[in-house]
Amino acid sequence: SPQIVWLRRDLRMADQPALHAAAKAGPVIPVYVLDDERAGDHAYGGASRWWLHHSLESLGRSLGARKSRIVLRKGDAPQVLAALADETGVSCIHAIRHYEPWWKEAEDELRDALGEGRKLCLYDGNYLMPPGSVTTGSGDPYKIYTPFSKALLEHMPPRDVLGEPETIHSPDAWPDSDALEAWDLLPTRPDWAGGFRAFWEVGEAAAHDRLDWWADRVADYDEGRNLPSEDITSRLSPHLHWGELSPAQVWHKLKDKRSDGWRTFGKEIIWRDYAQNVIDQFPDYPRTSYRDYDERKLWRNPDAGHLIREDLECWQRGMTGYPVVDAGMRQLWQTGWIHNRVRMIAASFLVKHLLIDWRFGEQWFWDCLVDADYGNNGVNWQWISGTGVDSNMFVRIMAPLTQSEKFDAAGYIREYVPELARLSDAEIHDPPDHKRGKYPKKMIGHKEARERALEAYKSAKS
Ligand code: FAD
C-alpha cells in the first residue's frame, strides 16, 4: 500500500531516512502540511516563510525529476495527515523526528488519530546523535555544553549517510494539492526580499554546492570565523535548519580535513545538537528564564513605556549609533542572516546596554532570520543574557567599539551602514559627532550603560 512521507524541516532527497524507508515499502506520497496555528508565538516569521517557499519549490523540482511530487495541504497537521491517510489508504506515515514541543505534541496526536492498522514511523536524521541519547554516567541528559560536547565526540563520526532512494514509485492516483503560490509565503508589496535573493541560493543542490565551497576553506575557520568583514564561516545554517543538508553529511564531508579549523567548526556543529538537547529537556526554553532573578528589577520592559519601545525600535532598525551593532541589525533586515560575532555583539547590546528583556530580541530574530531555529535561537539568547541553565554571562558585558576594532569590522560596517562608508578605518568604529552626518548619536555611552547594567543585575539578584 502507499506510504506517506511527512516532511517538515527535512527538505532533502539524500540522507532522508523517512523517504528512504517509505520508498522501500511502497508507492510514496510526500506531504508538507502548513500548520500555522500549532507553534503559537513561534509560527514561522517572514524570513522563514520566504525560505520555506523556495525550499519546497526546489524539493518539488527534484521529486518531479523522479516522476514524484509534494502534496501540499494546510491546517492542523495531525488531522490533515490522518484524513489523507484515510483518503489514500496508506498503512504508514514516515517522518523524521522533531523536537520542538509543538511537533512532539503533533506526533503524539497523529499516532492517536491514525488508530488501528496504521502507524507513524519516526526516524532520527537531523542531528549528529538523537537528542536525549548522549547522557552522563548516571543516565541523565547534559545541561552544560562542554561536557555534552566531550561526550558526543566519543560517538563521532556519526552514522553512515544514505544516498537518494534508488526508486520512488508513485501512487496510482495523486491526492489533491494546494498550489504553493496560493500559500502567499513570499512578500508581495513591498517586496523586501531583494537582498535575500542576492545573498542566498535555496535548496538541497545549493546546500551541497556551499558545502563543497566550504570544504576548501574550513582550514581558515579557527582564525577567520570572528571577522565579519570576511566570508570565512560556512553559512550553512539555513540549509541545516531546513534540513536541506544533514549534519552527518557535513561531518563526513569534512572529517578528514584534520586542521584546527575543522576541529573548531565541528564544535559549532555540536552546539546545534546541544541546543536540541536543551529544548528536549526544557521545552519552554526560548520563552522562559531559568535563573532565580527578580527579572522585574533586571529589564526595562518595553511594554512599560513608549521611550523603551522607541529604544527597541532603534535597535531593530539599526539606528543605535554603534556602527557594528547597526551593521548587524541591517544585515539581518537585508539578508535574513547575521554573522555570529555580530549576533553576539548586537544581542548583548539589547540585553545589557538597553536592559531590554531578551525575549524581545529572540522574537525579532525569530521573525527576521532565515535560519531562525527554536533551539539555537533560544539557547543563544539565554546564553548571552545569562538567564539559562548553562553559564551565567550577564556580567560579561561586551564593549561594542572594542569588539568592532578587534575583529576589524570596518569593511562590514561600510557594506551595511553606507552613510559611514567614507570614514577612515580609524574613525569608522566610533565616528566623531561632527562626522556622523545623518547617522545617529550613540543611544547611551558604553561606560554609563555598563554601570547601569551591573547595578540592575545586583538588585535583581539580591
Ligand atoms: P558557522 O560558524 O559556519 O557554523 C556552522 C554551523 O554550526 C551553523 O550553520 C550552525 O548550524 C551551527 N552553529 C554555529 N554556531 C552555533 C551556535 N552558537 N549555536 C548553535 N548552533 C551553532 N543559529 C541558528 O542556526 N539559528 C538561530 O536562530 C540562531 N540564533 C542565534 C541568536 C543569537 C543571539 C546568537 C548569538 C547566535 C544564534 N545562532 C543561531 C548561532 C550562530 O550565530 C549561527 O548558527 C551562525 O552564525 C550561522 O552561520 P554559519 O552557518 O556561517 O555558521
UniProtKB/TrEMBL annotation:
It comes from the Bacteria. One of its GO terms (molecular function) is DNA binding. Binds 1 FAD per subunit. Residues 1-128 form the Photolyase/cryptochrome alpha/beta domain. Its cofactor is (6R)-5,10-methylene-5,6,7,8-tetrahydrofolate; FAD. The record marks 299, 358, 381 as: Electron transfer via tryptophanyl radical. The keyword Cell wall biogenesis/degradation does not apply. Keywords: Chromophore, FAD, Flavoprotein, Lyase. FAD binds at residues 221, 233-237, 265, 371-373. Pfam families: DNA_photolyase, FAD_binding_7. One of its GO terms (biological process) is response to light stimulus. Coiled coil: none annotated. Belongs to the DNA photolyase family. This is Deoxyribodipyrimidine photo-lyase.
